[in-house]
Design brief:
With 900 residues, this protein is mostly beta strands. Among the domains are: 176 residues, YVTN repeat-like/Quinoprotein amine dehydrogenase (Methylamine Dehydrogenase, Chain H, 7 Propeller), CATH 2.130.10.10; 132 residues, Methylamine Dehydrogenase, Chain H, CATH 2.130.10.10; 47 residues, no CATH class; 82 residues; 189 residues, YVTN repeat-like/Quinoprotein amine dehydrogenase (Methylamine Dehydrogenase, Chain H), CATH 2.130.10.10.
C-alpha cells in the first residue's frame, strides 16, 4: 500500500478523469450522500490533494435507481453521466478551468429519461465528438421485457439533449435475454487480427464498434452504425457479475460461481461473425476486475479475498496463474470472541486483553465463505533468507570474537553446521570452529566468560577456547544419552536418559558438583535462568509438576503441581525471566504444557515460591520458548507453536501478541553488525530467515476456507469448538439449490471435526441463529452443554395457496466422535430469528412474537419444550439481548422494546 486516506462518507463511485492540460489522471469520488470531489496525486508530498468538490442537493426524494449508483465517463473524457435515481440522469461536463479557479467540472444538469428500470448503461465509442449512451432497461409491466436503446448525449453545439425517445433515440433492440445484466462497449476502428481468430491465413482488418449485451443464455453484438446484430447462444446458462476488457477482441467475464471466462469476438475479414466464450479457470468471486497490462488482472471481491492473476490467452486453452491473494475479512455475517485465558482453572489478569482473545468471524459469501480468526499482534520483516536447510533441530548465536554476534550454529538431527557472518552481511559456512563436534546433534551452544564457548551434544559437554577444547564431560556408561541441557554463566544442568540430573560447574572445568538419580519420575524439561544465580527449574513427566532446585546441591526449594481439572498434561518447556520491570514485579515463570496451554507464575525471589497462576491457550501442542533480550534490560519470550506469539511486558501487564511466523519451528536472537536487533527463524518449509520484529500493532488473520456461507457462530469452551450454521449454493442441472448445515470446527487448528448435520434442501430450510447453552436435565444433577439452532423455511398453505414462512428450534448434542446429533426439534409458526437464555429458560424471537420456553431433557436423545409466556411485537425482531429479567428486542423498524 502506497497511501490511504479517510473519507467522511461511504464511497459509491470511483472514476478517473483527465482534465484539460493535466499530465496525470484525477480521481472522481462520490458518496451515498451525494457529495462529490476530485483528488490528484502529489508526487512531492506523496499524498492525495483535493482539487474540486460539490454537493448535489437536487431531487433528494426521488426513487433510487435499481442498480447501485453509477458513474460513466465518455471515451473522449468530456462528459460524465451519473445514474442515481429512476428516470433521471445527471450530466456533468469536463471543461477547461477558468482563470483564477481550478474547477473543471460543471454543476450537474439533470435530464429526465423514459427508461425507468435501468439494468445497465455505458458510453459507446464514436467516430465524431458527440458522445453516445447505450441503456439496457426493462420495459415490461408484468413480465420482463429487456430492451436496448442508444441516445446522443449532446447536440452539435455541445448542449445536453432531452433524451426524447421520439426524436433523440437512435437505435432500439427488443426481445433480449431476460437475464441480460451488462453492456460491453466495443472499441471503434480497424483492428488487425492475424494473431486472433481468423478464417483466412492472411492479415485482415475488422471494422469494429458497437456494444455487446451480456445475457444469461445469449450474447448479442450490435453494430451501432450498421445496425447489424450477431447472436451467440451459450452452452449453459450463467449469471454474470463482472466484466473487463483484455484487448480489442478479448473480454473477461466473471460469473456468480467464482469462474473466469474469456469472450472473443470472432471476425472473418472485416465482418464480425460471432462470439466465443471459454472457461479459463476458478478465481475469487469478482466484484470488479481491472486489466493492468501484460496479462495481469486484479480481481477485487466483496465476498472473498481479492486476487492478482496472470492470464495466458495465446495458448490453445487459456490458462491463469494466481500471483497474489489479499485477505478480505468482509462481509462479516456473525462473529464471536474466544477468550484464551483461564482454561485450566487459573485466572487471567484482564478480560479480553491483547493476545488473550481472538475474534472469530463468519466471513465472505457462498463459494468464498470462510471462518477467520482475527488476533492483534506484531509482524516479522524478513531481511535475509538462507534456503534449503532441512530438519533444523536447534539454532544458537555465538560471538567468536568481539562484542557482536557473528556465528550461527545450526543443529540438525545427525550433524552440526556453522556459518560465519561478516560486517557487510556476507555468509560463509566453515567446517572447523574451535574444535566443535560437527558430526553430532547439538543440544546447547553458548558463550561463557573468559572467551569460552560451551557445546552440549547427546554424548556429553565441552568447553572450547580459541585454541580448541579445554575440558570435556561424558555421560555415565549406564545412562549414555543426554536428553536435555540448560546453562547459565556458572552452572550447566544436564539430564541423562531423563532419570539422572547432573549439575556441572562451568568455572571449574565441568566438575560435577551435584548428582541426583530419579527413581519414581523422569525429567521432561529443564531451564537455568541466566539472571538468577544457582537456580534451575525442572519439569517432570509422571507427576506433571515443576520443581525449583539449588544448582549447588540439587535440593528442591519449591515444588508446584500443575495439574488441575483432571488434566493429565505434562510440562514440556520452561522459561524464567524478567518480563516486567523489576521495581514493579519479580521474575515470571512460563511453562508450556503438552496440550498447548501456557501457564505463567509470579516468582518470589526470596522464598522462590510461585503465585498468581494464569493460563492461556496458544495451540494444541506444546510451545517452545526462546528468551530474547531487550535493550532496556528486560526480556521478551518468543513462543513457537501453531499460533506463534511474542510475550512481552507493556503498561505493567504481560501481553501475548500474535506474530507472522506461522511456519516457525526454531528461532534465536541474532544481534550482529550487519543485522542488528534481528532474529533467525527456521521454518517448516526448509528455510532460514533473518528477520526483525516490527513493534507496530497489526491484525493477524487465520483463515479456514469452507466454500459456503458461515451465517451464524456459537463458541463452546467445554467442547473447544465452534458450532457454525452454514449455507452452500449448489448448481444442479442449471438450477440453484441452497443447502444448510450445522457443523463443528476445532478452536485452535481451525479444522472441521466430526460429521456435519445436513438440513433438508427440498423446502429450503435456512439457519437463522445458533446459540450455545447449559441446560438442566431430569436424569442428572449437573447441567449439560447443548447447541440450539433456530431455522426458517417456506411451507405452502393448502387453504390460502400461498407460501408462509415457518421455522424450527433444534437442540444438538455432541457425541463421542465430536459430531453434532439432533436431540429434539420443535416446530414453530414463524421463523426463529434470535435465541437467548434467561435464568435457565430459552427465549426465542420469532416473526412478530417473543416466546419463553422451559426445556426439559429426559434422556440424551429426547426432550421437549413447554411454552411459558409470549409477547407480540409490531415488526420482525432482528436482535435480542437479556439482562436479568429484562429482554431487549431490536426490530427492523429500528425500534427497541424492553420487556419485563
Amino acid at each position: 500500500m502506497v497511501t490511504s486516506k479517510a473519507i467522511y462518507g461511504r464511497v459509491s463511485m470511483l472514476e478517473k478523469i483527465r482534465p484539460f492540460g493535466a499530465k496525470t489522471d484525477h480521481l472522481f469520488i462520490g458518496t451515498v450522500r451525494f457529495q462529490y470531489f476530485t483528488v490528484v496525486w502529489n508526487p512531492e508530498t506523496r499524498q492525495l490533494d483535493t482539487i474540486q468538490s460539490f454537493v448535489d442537493v437536487a431531487e433528494r426524494h426521488m426513487q433510487n435507481s435499481q442498480s447501485r449508483d453509477g458513474c460513466l465517463i465518455d471515451p473522449t473524457g468530456k462528459i460524465m453521466v451519473m445514474e442515481l435515481f429512476q428516470g433521471i440522469l445527471n450530466v456533468v461536463k469536463v471543461i477547461k478551468p477558468r482563470k483564477g479557479t481550478q474547477d473543471y467540472l460543471t454543476p450537474p444538469e439533470q435530464v429526465r429519461i423514459t427508461e425507468l428500470r435501468v439494468k445497465a448503461c455505458t458510453f459507446l465509442y464514436t467516430e465524431d465528438k458527440r458522445p453516445k449512451l447505450a441503456i439496457l432497461y426493462d420495459a415490461g409491466k408484468v413480465h420482463p421485457d429487456l430492451r436496448l436503446v442508444t441516445y446522443r448525449v449532446v447536440d452539435e453545439k455541445g448542449g445536453v439533449l432531452a433524451f426524447d425517445p421520439t426524436r433523440d433515440r437512435e437505435n432500439e433492440l427488443s426481445g433480449l435475454d431476460v437475464g441480460a445484466s451488462h453492456l460491453i462497449p466495443v472499441s471503434k476502428g480497424e483492428i488487425e487480427h492475424k494473431r486472433y481468430i481468423v478464417r483466412n491465413a492472411t492479415t485482415a482488418k475488422a471494422q469494429l464498434g458497437g456494444v455487446i449485451v451480456v445475457g444469461e443464455t445469449t450474447m448479442i453484438y450490435l453494430d451501432d452504425e450498421s445496425k447489424a446484430v450477431v447472436e451467440c447462444t451459450l452452452e449453459e446458462a450463467n449469471i454474470w457479475v463482472a466484466w473487463e476488457k483484455y484487448d480489442d477482441l478479448h473480454y473477461l467475464l466473471a460469473d456468480r460461481y467464482a469462474r473466469l471466462y474469456l469472450m472473443t469476438i470472432e471476425v472473418d475479414g472485416a465482418v464480425v461473425i460471432g462470439l466465443d466464450v471459454k472457461l479459463i479457470g476458478k478465481t475469487t468471486k469478482a466484484t470488479v476486475m481491472k486489466h493492468m497490462g501484460d496479462g495481469v488482472v486484479f480481481i477485487a471481491s466483496h465476498e472473498g479475498d481479492s486476487q492478482v492473476v496472470r492470464l495466458d490467452i495465446e495458448s490453445e486453452e487459456p490458462r491463469l496463474q494466481i500471483l497474489q491473494t489479499m485477505a478480505n475479512v468482509a462481509p462479516i455475517l456473525d462473529f464471536t470472541v474466544m477468550d484464551l485465558g483461564g482454561r485450566d482453572g487459573g485466572s487471567h489478569s484482564s478480560e479480553y486483553s491483547s493476545g488473550e482473545a481472538r475474534i472469530v468471524t463468519g466471513s465472505g459469501g457462498w463459494s468464498e465463505g470462510s471462518l477467520r480468526s482475527v488476533r492483534s499482534g506484531v509482524g516479522l520483516e524478513d531481511i535475509g533468507i538462507l534456503p534449503d536447510m532441512k530438519d533444523v533441530q536447534g539454532l544458537f548465536a555465538l560471538r567468536s570474537d568481539g562484542e557482536y554476534i557473528d556465528t550461527l550454529i545450526i543443529s540438525l538431527s545427525i550433524e552440526t553446521r556453522v556459518f560465519k557472518f561478516d560486517s557487510e552481511g556476507g555468509i560463509e559456512e566453515i567446517e572447523n570452529f574451535r574444535g566443535f563436534q560437527m558430526d553430532a546433534h547439538t543440544l546447547l551452544a553458548a558463550n561463557l566468560p573468559n572467551d569460552l564457548i560451551l557445546q552440549v551434544t547427546t554424548k556429553g559437554a565441552m568447553l572450547l577456547s580459541s585454541r580448541g577444547p579445554v575440558s570435556r564431560w561424558t555421560t555415565p556408561v549406564e545412562f549414555p544419552l543426554v536428553t536435555a541441557a540448560s546453562a547459565s554463566d556458572t552452572h550447566l544442568l544436564i539430564s541423562a536418559n531423563g532419570v539422572v540430573l547432573a549439575s556441572l560447574n562451568l568455572r571449574d572445568n565441568l566438575k560435577v558438583v551435584a548428582r541426583q538419580d530419579l527413581s519414581d519420575d523422569q525429567v521432561a524439561c529443564i531451564h537455568v535462568p541466566g539472571h538468577m544465580p544457582n537456580i534451575a527449574v525442572v519439569g517432570f513427566w509422571k507427576s506433571g509438576s515443576i520443581s525449583i532446585l539449588n544448582l549447588t546441591n540439587l535440593q528442591i526449594i519449591h515444588t508446584e503441581d500443575l495439574r488441575r481439572m483432571d488434566n493429565a498434561s505434562i510440562p514440556r518447556n520452561i522459561a524464567l525471566t524478567q518480563v516486567l520491570p523489576a521495581e514493579s514485579s519479580g521474575p515470571t515463570l512460563f511453562v508450556a504444557m503438552e496440550d498447548g496451554i501456557v501457564l505463567s507464575f509470579n516468582v518470589d525471589q526470596e522464598t522462590m515460591s510461585l503465585f498468581g497462576r494464569k493460563s492461556i491457550v496458544l495451540g494444541t501442542q506444546q510451545a517452545r520458548f526462546e528468551v530474547l533480550p531487550r535493550k532496556d534490560g528486560l526480556y521478551n519470550v518468543f513462543a513457537t507453536c501453531e499460533h506463534p506469539s511474542l510475550i512481552y511486558g507493556s503498561e505493567g501487564r504481560i501481553v501475548y501478541s500474535a506474530v507472522t511466523a506461522e511456519n516457525a519451528v526454531q528461532i534465536c536472537s541474532f544481534d550482529s553488525i550487519a543485522y542488528p536487533d534481528s532474529i533467525i527463524v527456521a521454518t517448516a518449509d526448509n528455510g532460514l530467515k533473518i528477520s526483525q520484529i516490527d513493534t507496530e500493532r497489526r491484525t493477524h488473520v487465520t483463515t479456514l476456507p469452507l466454500g459456503e456461507t458461515v451465517r451464524r457462530i456459537a463458541y463452546s469452551a467445554n467442547e473447544r469448538a465452534f458450532g457454525i450454521g452454514c449455507m452452500k449454493l449448489e448448481l444442479e442441472e442449471g438450477q440453484e439449490i441452497v443447502v444448510s448445515s450445522f457443523k463443528l470446527v476445532e478452536e485452535v487448528m481451525f479444522g472441521e471435526i466430526g460429521k456435519p448435520f445436513i438440513f433438508d434442501s427440498s423446502r429450503g430450510e435456512l439457519i437463522e441463529c445458533v446459540m450455545r447453552a447449559e441446560l438442566h436435565t431430569t436424569y442428572g444433577d449437573e447441567p449439560v452443554e447443548r447447541f440450539l439452532v433456530g431455522t426458517s423455511y417456506l411451507e405452502e398453505d393448502d387453504n390460502r395457496s400461498t407460501d408462509r414462512r415457518k421455522g424450527r428450534i433444534i437442540v444438538f448434542g455432541v457425541d463421542n466422535t465430536r459430531s453434532p446429533y439432533e436431540i429434539m426439534s420443535h416446530e414453530l409458526k414463524g421463523a426463529c430469528r434470535c435465541l437467548a437464555m434467561m435464568d435457565g429458560k430459552i427465549v426465542a424471537a420469532l416473526v412478530k412474537t417473543v416466546v419463553v420456553y422451559r426445556y426439559e431433557e429426559t434422556t440424551e436423545n429426547s426432550a421437549h419444550f413447554s411454552k411459558l409466556a409470549t409477547y407480540r411485537t409490531s415488526t420482525n425482531p432482528i436482535s435480542m439481548d437479556i439482562n436479568g429479567s429484562i429482554i431487549a428486542i431490536g426490530d427492523m423498524m429500528k425500534y427497541v422494546y424492553p420487556l419485563l
